[in-house]
Amino acid sequence: ITIDARPRSKNSNCCKKPGSPGWNNLVYSNGGTTKTGDTSAQSCCESCAADPICALWFFKSQSCLHNVGADTCTSPLFNSTDIFDSGDIRCVGGCTPKSQQSTPDGTAEVTSTDSTDSIDNSFGD
Q1: What does pTM read for this prediction?
Q2: What domain range is 67 assigned to?
Q3: Is 56 exposed, middle or buried (0-12, 13-18, 19+ CB in 10 A)?
Q4: What is the tally of structural domains in the chain?
Q5: Which residues, at least 6 apart from 84, have a Cβ–Cβ distance to it below 8 Å?
Q6: Distances (CA, A) of 112 to 26, 58, 62, 71
Q7: For the segment 44-56, what is each residue's pLDDT rounded down to a tens digit?
Q8: Do the domain assignments include residue 49?
């Protein structure tokens, strides 16, 4: 059984629509990515919010990537509006403060990502 102790009032609106706190199209380029089976930007955002090691999410061409790197929130911030849907869940300005972010337990497959080009290339376009 997994219990999500984050405040529901804040999480219920986290991924409601573009412009919501977790769907702000502001992302960092550091960290690692793991691909999910989500088929919409909203479900990608929601699954990231539900995953305690997911800091950011990206959605493009029916593919969802979660950014799970421990150093994710330390790289330069960029706006992805013209490139792909994305959002900050656990960095500054996201749904859950970075101080509440869990560290990866080593079970997630992580691919190094160190630039915006690398993030975009992770989608396989």
Answers
A1: 0.69
A2: 17-101
A3: buried
A4: 1
A5: 58, 59, 60, 120, 123
A6: 19, 15, 21, 11
A7: 999 999 998 899 9
A8: yes
